[in-house]
Design brief:
- With 197 residues, this protein is of the alpha/beta class.
- It contains 7 helices and 4 strands.
- It has a 4-stranded parallel sheet with strand order 1-2-3-4, sandwiched between helices.
- Helix 2 links the parallel strand 1 and strand 2.
- The two termini are 34 Å apart.
């Protein structure tokens, strides 16, 4: 990309991998592969674009997280169903922590580093396949446009206004006046621990 278009101004780390398997049955190779995509990939790509961003005195890295980063809290647990989302949640929580640490590290260089999750589940082929929604037209889902617009907002606002933010699509869009009505995580229910700091 750099050879073709020049220095990278914005990096969106959006790739993700998960296998919905309970920990007791989780193959170690799949665990490692998932962390490689969900955490190591954003680290490696950030490391590659940061020198140019820091030299130019600006840029944006948006890490796409997930509501899965919000843990179930402490027991006892009424719902003891094993859904197999522990690895995915752990990797997204790690991504959120990396976001805030990296934001602090590059703050002197005017580089914004943020993490963004959808306020509601976005109906995609992946969320349909894993039965997180009842089809691409599930009315409980969030239109993909919310994530696209929220990513644009985080990539274009000044680092002084957004860097270190761990936020949710509809929450950040409402806060900055890009939408009037909002619902879901970050609006009518709390987000992850990192979104509270």
């Amino acid at each position: 990309a750099k050879e073709t278009f020049g220095p990278v101004d914005v990096l969106v780390n959006n790739a993700a991998l998960n296998y919905y398997i309970p920990i007791v049955d989780y193959p170690t190779s799949r665990w490692v592969r998932s962390f490689a995509v969900n955490v190591h990939g954003p680290f490696i790509l950030s490391k590659l674009v940061l020198p140019d961003m820091m030299e130019r005195g600006g840029g944006a890295i948006v890490n796409i997280s997930s509501g899965a980063a919000i843990g179930p809290g402490r027991g006892p647990y009424e719902d003891q169903t094993a859904r197999g989302g522990t690895m995915y949640g752990a990797s997204k929580a790690a991504l959120e922590r990396m976001t805030q640490g990296l934001a602090q590290e590059v703050s002197a260089h005017n580089v914004a580093v943020t993490a963004l999750s959808p306020s509601q589940v976005v109906p995609t082929p992946g969320t349909v396949f894993h039965k997180l929604v009842d089809g691409l037209e599930d009315p409980r889902g969030e239109a993909p446009e919310y994530m696209a617009r929220a990513t644009l907002l985080l990539a274009t606002e000044g680092a002084d206004r957004v860097s270190g933010r761990v936020t949710y699509s509809q929450a950040i869009l409402k806060e900055f006046g890009w939408i009037d009505e909002a619902q879901g995580t970050g609006i009518d229910r709390p987000g992850s621990g990192y979104s509270q700091i």
